[in-house]
Structure formats: C-alpha cells, structure tokens
Amino acid sequence: MGGDMNGHRPLRIAILECDTGLPKALAKYERYGAISSALLESGAEAAGLRHGDVDISLWDVVNNVGEFPKLGDVDGVFLTGSKFDSFADIPWTNKLVDYVKEILAQDRVRLVGVCFGHQIIGRAMGVKVGRNENQGWEVSITDVNLTAEGKHLFDGKDTLSIYQMHKDIVFDYPPGVQALGSTGRCEVQGMFVPGRVLTVQGHPEFTEEILVEILEVRHEQGVFGDEIYEEAMARVGKKHDGLMVGKKFIEFLLGRKQA
C-alpha cells in the first residue's frame, strides 16, 4: 500500500525484518517482512482504510546492521519475529535495542512488536528476556487469557487465539506497561502503553502453511520431538484471531479509540 489518505499523508509504517525466512514462505512472499506487511494490509482493510492509506517500507536489520528509518519519515515501527535470540549480545541486536530506545525516548512514532520484536521492546524497556527453561516451547494456536485491559483492547473477548512459536520470553512487565494477557507457559503475552507501545508474544501474521513449514523443519532438525510436533500439528488448522490483531495494530498506529 502507498498513497494519499483522504488528501492527507498516508500512515507510514516501517517493518524491521528481524529474520530471513524459510524457503516455502519466501517462495510466496519473497522476503520475510512481507508476511507482516500482508497482515497490516489486511488489518488496514478491516479497519476501513482504502488502498493507498498505508505506506509500508521494509528494512532488513539483520544484514544491514545499523540501518534504520529516520523517525521523521515514519509514523510507526513494527518489529517482526525471528529465529534469533532477543537477548543476544551481538552487533545487529544491540543496535536494534538502541534504536528502539530512541523511539521510546520520543512520543510521536509508535511501536508494535510480535514475538522476538515483543521481546526486543521488553529488553529496551529494561526487563529481562531469555529462555523459558521451566516451561519450554509454546507452539501452534494457543488461547491467551486476556486481562481487563486486554479484553477492552480486543473488543471484549476473554481469550485471544493466536499462533505461537517461542521458547524465549519477557520475564516481567516493565514499569508503566499495561498487561494484556497470559498463558500457563508465559506470563507476559502482550504489553500496552496507550499511544506508545503495543506488543504480543504470539504471531498474528502467521498462516497455517507458514507454521506447518516451521514445525516440519524443526521436527526434522530434532528441535521438536514427536510429541510436541504431533500435538502442535493437531491444533495448527484451528480458527485464530490474527486478522483482529492486525486490525488493532492499525487502529493503534492511527490513534483510534482505546488504542
């Protein structure tokens, strides 16, 4: 999408690509960030926006270390998921954390993050991120139990069904952040600061075919044993709320309603 929103500047969203993707997904989407772009475009349509009302740019922050959009050129920044460690002390993740801190230090550009992106934002806000050794992997479609704020944000729903693919977590809510939900395996499933930050630990941008490819690859690699793999595959085709989350991301970036 790109153009002019009712005679005004379109909503400018920069997607920071934090991964490179798997072969089948890349064959369809060409690059990893396009998966998130597809979610935002569908969310924009669901929110009543027209073609051209949203201008999305993709930034490969893994291979182009330290290259980020100028904050004056964007209205929102979206951090994708990733197979990499959000707690890694390596150049590209460290520079990404510094950039997120720069966004948090101002009050115009809004932040959205999913999975790894959610964790990077938590790290930039000063809380611990790392392996969830006690609970292990959380995968496939999972029901997130929403808090009162989560219910308010997500139209009164008690639970949010969303794809998960993580073993790393944000351990605590940063000061001043509203908790959106939790699961038995992960207490920090979403963070909200009105007008500033909106994150989810899950993957609203994923589709069934994307998750199946990840499950199959990680099963073949021995990352997932037969029990985890089969149980996850049994849930992979269930109904989920990805589009609703995408719509809420857009409404948040626009400054609508409770977002």
Q: Any key phrases for this structure?
A:
259 residues, alpha/beta, nine-stranded mixed beta sheet, two-stranded antiparallel ribbon, 8 helices, 11 strands, 23% strand, disordered N terminus
Describe what this molecule looks like in 3D.
A nine-stranded mixed β-sheet has the order 2-1-3-4-11-10-9-6-7, with helices on both faces. It has a two-stranded antiparallel sheet with strand order 5-8. Helix 2 packs across helix 8, helix 3 packs across helix 4 and helix 6 (208-220) runs antiparallel to helix 7. The protein is α/β, with parallel strands linked by helices. The protein is globular, with a radius of gyration of 17 Å. Helix content is 33%, strand content 23%. It is built from eight helices and eleven strands. It has helices spanning 23-29, 33-46, 91-104, 116-124, 148-153, 208-220, 226-235, 242-254, and strands at residues 11-17, 54-60, 76-79, 110-114, 129-131, 138-146, 159-166, 168-170, 178-182, 190-193, 197-200. The model is unreliable at 1-6 (pLDDT under 50).
What are the SSEs and their pairings?
Layout: E1 11-17, H1 23-29, H2 33-46, E2 54-60, E3 76-79, H3 91-104, E4 110-114, H4 116-124, E5 129-131, E6 138-146, H5 148-153, E7 159-166, E8 168-170, E9 178-182, E10 190-193, E11 197-200, H6 208-220, H7 226-235, H8 242-254
Parallel strand pairs: 1-2, 1-3, 3-4, 4-11
Antiparallel strand pairs: 5-8, 6-7, 6-9, 9-10, 10-11
Q: In a few lines, what is going on in this structure?
A:
The chain has 259 residues and is α/β, with parallel strands linked by helices. Helix content is 33%, strand content 23%.
